[in-house]
Specification:
By secondary structure, the protein is an alpha/beta fold. It contains eleven helices and twelve strands. The strands form three sheets. It has a seven-stranded mixed sheet with strand order 2-8-7-6-5-3-4, sandwiched between helices. The chain is globular and about 70 Å long.
Length: 384
């Protein structure tokens, strides 16, 4: 099998697995208990909190464990806006290419007396800081712009947007689910108020993530109950997953620069190989301002979902877009938002690389893709 869908999820690292095993069986104490048996569990949770905080240049008490990116995004947007409405601020600025965890939260907010501006994007998939600045109103409470897009991999100008947000006294949230562990992010440099992340995108376990909340940000609880996580997020902590997330994050951060360099070289080689072997292909998103492992191309005269199916039959795992919306009949909202036609969006293919990806796998993938596209185009009545 050749796996080129790392944006959908990643394999649990051996280091994370080894770290988790004792907490799945032997170290099973509830971290909220007061006896010594719980000490080791609390200590490892604190260790994970420190790893995540240090990675962002944050404080340990600003990290809250969640079930993943979706919960973190929902918590950040809904509770911030509910709180800000009490101060007469009910306007939120975001972009048209956000993950559905953000977009659907925004729709919920619109049904609950909030106003949302969805910024359009150019073909390169990058929002401009001046667009954000022009959209600000007297009642703007929050800006939410993702760090890196999950489909086309484009990197957003967080530092420039954060500077504007700070000058205007507006809270700034970023969905960093695709970015954390893969590229450096500093909450201070970007003036971030809140940040969402999910462990399974950086070789940690599924069902665990975190929300960074700046110390001075008033964020009510999203889940109510026993008062865990400093009274902010109730529910007995998933200690084994938390420990695994910490181990995976530490490993990713240690290797970040080296991994990015390798993945970027393979990414560029993949783009060039596809364009050389398969005519009528177009790269989606900016050529350089993108994640080091992301390739998204529209291949004319073929249906992306059909290509995914045929590649899968050859043991090559790729996708036609976000795994969260796989099977959806509509075209990608991201690709449509950056100006692609309905047909171009349906022609799209996403290939995302990982540390284990090799040049040989890239060559085999391009060979298989070229053969499949030639076959499908041969069946098509369209002339190209």
């Amino acid at each position: 099998m050749i796996y080129l869908d790392y944006a959908a999820t990643t394999k649990l690292s051996e280091r994370a697995l080894r770290a988790m095993l004792p907490f799945l069986r032997d170290q099973y104490a509830n971290p909220s208990s007061s006896y010594r048996f719980s000490d080791a569990v609390r200590e490892k949770m604190s260790e994970t909190r420190k790893i995540l905080a240090d990675a962002l240049g944050a404080k340990q008490n600003e990290i809250y464990f969640t079930s993943g990116g979706t919960e973190s995004d929902n918590w950040a947007l809904k509770e911030v806006m509910e709180q800000q409405k009490k101060r007469g601020k009910n306007h939120l600025i975001t972009t048209q290419i956000e993950h559905h965890a953000v977009l659907h939260s925004c729709q919920w907010l619109e049904n609950n007396d909030c106003e949302v501006t969805y910024l359009p994007l150019e073909r390169d998939g990058i929002v401009r800081a001046e667009q954000v600045e022009r959209a600000i109103r007297p009642n703007t409470a929050l800006i939410s712009v993702m760090a890196a897009n999950n489909e086309i991999g484009t990197l957003q100008p967080l530092k420039e947007i954060g500077k504007i947000a700070k000058q205007q006294g507006i809270l700034f949230h970023t969905d960093a689910v695709q970015a954390f562990g893969h590229i450096p992010i500093s909450v201070e440099d970007c003036n971030l108020s809140l940040l969402s992340a999910s462990a399974h995108k950086f070789h940690g376990p599924k069902g665990i993530g975190f929300l960074y909340v700046r110390e001075n940000v008033e964020l009510p609880s999203f889940l109510h109950g026993g008062g865990q996580e400093g009274g902010k997020r109730s529910g007995t902590e998933n200690t084994a997953a938390i420990v695994g997330m910490g181990a995976a994050a530490a490993e990713m951060l240690e290797q970040q620069a080296e991994r990015a360099k390798k993945e970027q070289a393979l990414r560029d080689y993949l783009i060039e190989s596809i364009q050389a072997r398969i005519p009528y292909t177009k790269l989606n998103g900016d050529r350089k301002q993108r994640l080091p492992n992301n390739v998204n191309v529209s291949i004319s005269f073929v249906e992306g979902e059909v290509v995914v199916l045929l590649m899968g039959m050859r043991g090559i795992c790729v996708s036609a877009g976000s795994a969260c919306s796989a099977g959806s009949a509509g075209a990608s909202h991201v690709l449509r938002a950056i100006g692609l036609s309905e047909e171009e969006a349906h022609n799209a293919l996403r290939l995302t690389l990982g540390a284990e990806t090799t040049k040989q796998e890239i060559d085999e993938t391009v060979e298989a893709l070229s053969e499949i596209v030639s076959f499908l185009r041969g069946q098509s009545p369209m002339v190209y």
